[in-house]
């Protein structure tokens, strides 16, 4: 038995399968928790012997106990949209979206502007949805609606005017203004112009941001067993969520740990942004909120033709996509952020974008004498496997989203036509990353998938398909499938290492913080097809139940 007897157990979970996610991938029968930390793991008899008069002993009847799940790349504070914006996630046409916006605008006449999210390029014209369609239902107020990737925005004419985008606006180097034949903006903005337009709209208030974070904790984090997340959403000086995190931390209302990645934008003065990020970092020093990362975009997304590829798009042979940062901008921003002491966090979809990130990491390491620690690259949809040795040698972390390892509708309607079948079939490497010794961390990119369930990610990492979707003929690149233990590690100890928190969380070892989840079925013994029939039934954060369902419902406090 492994134990830290300095802490008396408040709670013992026994008659379980405890997967510790430690270096030995050890398995135990029981875990004891005291003072918010793990006191002991071991056999049921050994751990139960530690019980005192005040210890609560819970028989788990063979359930699985894991370290609390960690999501290494998501946008937690974007949950505010679910409370204050119109959702278009269920829309399957322009008409569906317009009808939803009309209803929402009619129900909220007090709003000076209408915001929304979730429309899909899959159901839209090649040029994107048009301003004229929105003008027909909301002619007098600005409207901005982000797509389900958050890389494109659909505006009405009033919204375009508010953003200062018209026929005379030059085409940007960091994105696309879709245009009508007469040169006027059609209504869809991709990448940089969409972010520019969003800045022209009223930001969320502090109270709205606070309610959004609480909503995320209640409906997303705790029910899915998430106890630590990387929030790659905040922008210094713009997002009220930054203050809201501290308000909630001071009030003791946080039920997850937040690693904030501050967005450094390509169209704003670099020195001013780095200075603002340094000031912001000083306001978030823990224990539950830390702002140690700088977030940098290398490219966009395949479905917008804004991902940067080494070979041209199959449907647009004149295009490879343009980098978000022009010239050596990404390198300069990376060097500046690293010199200011930030850890580096990159968005890269295309293979050329990944190579740009590796170039930037090398430049930052050279400029800081090798002080770039575990730089993180997320998404990695199209990857040149020849770049993986350099990826590994630089100590870069791969934060992957296994929920996208599918041959579903988006794959058929966007990825195959845009990439060609051969390239599309080799999307999202996984086993190759592990085989090259790269640290692989699990992530969801929430709210792009509205349900960031680690159990879905674990299953799709193992199967590379959705077993409940009869329309998927076969797995996506089946040679890249990995064992379930590797996926459990990706969402626990590997993600903790990716975020620099492995000394605190990520495994169930004595002395570590008692973040853990109880899952209804043993994921290590059931078939991979059955993984999503299991459910999180208990989530402990710092030893305190923050979610409890089924037979454990009485354990959860308010």
Map the helices and strands.
Layout: E1 2-3, E2 11-14, E3 17-19, E4 27-28, E5 30-34, E6 37-42, H1 44-48, E7 56-59, E8 64-67, E9 69-74, H2 80-84, E10 86-87, H3 94-107, E11 114-119, H4 131-135, E12 143-147, E13 152-155, H5 157-163, E14 175-179, E15 185-191, H6 192-199, H7 206-221, E16 226-231, H8 241-250, E17 257-263, H9 270-282, E18 289-297, H10 329-339, E19 343-348, H11 351-367, E20 376-379, H12 388-393, E21 397-400, H13 409-419, H14 421-424, H15 431-435, E22 439-442, H16 454-463, H17 484-490, H18 493-498, E23 516-519, E24 536-541, E25 544-548
Parallel strand pairs: 2-7, 3-8, 9-16, 10-11, 11-12, 16-17, 17-18, 18-19, 19-20, 20-21, 21-22
Antiparallel strand pairs: 1-6, 2-5, 3-4, 5-6, 8-23, 12-13, 13-15, 14-15, 23-24, 24-25
Helix pairs in contact: 5-6, 7-8, 10-11
Summarize the structure in words.
This protein is α/β, with parallel strands linked by helices. The protein folds into three domains: 2-68 and 509-555, Urease, subunit C, domain 1, CATH 2.30.40.10; 113-199, Roll (Diaminopimelate Epimerase, Chain A, domain 1), CATH 3.10.310.70; 206-498, TIM Barrel (Alpha-Beta Barrel). The chain is built from 18 helices and 25 strands. An eight-stranded parallel sheet has the order 9-16-17-18-19-20-21-22. Strands 4-3-8-23-24-25 form a six-stranded mixed sheet, with no helix packed on it. A six-stranded mixed sheet has the order 10-11-12-13-15-14. α10 (329-339) crosses α11 (351-367). The mean pLDDT is 95.
């Amino acid at each position: 038995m492994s134990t830290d007897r300095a802490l008396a157990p408040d709670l013992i979970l026994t008659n379980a399968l405890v997967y510790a996610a430690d270096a030995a991938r050890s398995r135990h029968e029981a875990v004891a928790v005291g003072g918010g930390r793990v006191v002991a793991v071991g056999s049921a008899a050994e751990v139960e012997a530690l019980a005192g008069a005040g210890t609560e002993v819970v028989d788990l009847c063979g359930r699985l106990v894991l370290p609390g799940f960690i999501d290494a790349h998501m946008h937690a504070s974007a949950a505010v949209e679910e409370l204050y914006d119109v959702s278009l996630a269920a829309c399957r046409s322009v008409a569906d979206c317009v009808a939803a916006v009309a209803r929402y605008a009619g129900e909220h006449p007090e709003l000076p502007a209408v915001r929304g999210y979730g429309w899909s390029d899959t159901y839209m014209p090649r040029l994107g949805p048009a301003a004229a369609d929105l003008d027909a239902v909301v002619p007098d107020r600005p409207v901005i609606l982000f797509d389900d990737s958050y890389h494109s925005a659909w505006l009405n004419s009033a919204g375009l005017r508010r953003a200062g985008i018209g026929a005379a606006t030059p085409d940007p180097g960091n994105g696309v203004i879709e245009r009508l034949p007469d040169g006027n903006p059609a209504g869809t903005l991709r990448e940089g112009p969409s972010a520019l337009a969003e800045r022209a709209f009223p930001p969320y208030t502090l109270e709205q941001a606070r309610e959004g974070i609480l909503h995320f904790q209640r409906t997303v984090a705790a029910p899915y067993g998430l106890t630590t997340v990387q929030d790659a959403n905040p922008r210094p000086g713009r997002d009220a969520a930054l203050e809201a995190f501290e308000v909630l931390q001071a009030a003791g209302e946080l039920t997850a740990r937040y690693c904030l990645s501050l967005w450094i934008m390509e169209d704003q003065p670099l020195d001013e942004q780095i200075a603002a990020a340094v000031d912001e970092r000083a306001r978030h020093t823990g224990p539950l909120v830390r702002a140690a990362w700088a977030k940098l975009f290398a490219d966009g997304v395949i479905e917008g033709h804004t991902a940067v590829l080494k070979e041209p798009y199959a449907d647009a042979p004149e295009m490879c996509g343009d980098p978000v940062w022009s010239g050596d901008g990404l390198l300069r921003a990376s060097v500046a952020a690293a010199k200011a002491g930030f850890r580096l966090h990159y968005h890269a979809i295309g293979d050329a974008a990944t190579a740009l990130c590796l170039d930037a990491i090398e430049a930052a390491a050279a400029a800081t004498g090798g002080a770039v620690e575990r730089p993180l690259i997320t998404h990695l949809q199209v990857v040149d496997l020849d770049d993986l040795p350099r990826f590994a040698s630089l100590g870069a972390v791969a934060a992957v989203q296994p929920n996208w390892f599918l041959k579903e509708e988006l794959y058929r309607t966007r990825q195959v036509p845009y990439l060609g079948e051969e390239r599309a079939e080799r999307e999202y490497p996984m086993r190759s990353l592990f085989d090259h010794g790269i640290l692989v961390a699990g992530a969801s990119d929430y709210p792009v998938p509205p349900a960031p369930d680690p159990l879905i990610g674990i299953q799709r990492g193992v199967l590379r398909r959705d077993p409940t979707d009869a329309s998927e003929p076969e797995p996506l690149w089946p040679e890249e499938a990995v064992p379930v233990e590797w996926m459990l590690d990706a969402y626990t100890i590997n993600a903790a290492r990716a975020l620099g928190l492995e000394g605190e969380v990520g495994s169930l070892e004595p002395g570590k913080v008692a973040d853990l989840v109880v899952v209804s079925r043993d994921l290590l013994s059931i078939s991979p097809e059955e993984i999503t029939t299991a459910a999180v039934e208990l989530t402990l954060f710092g030893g305190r139940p923050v979610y409890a369902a089924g037979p454990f419902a009485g354990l959860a406090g308010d």
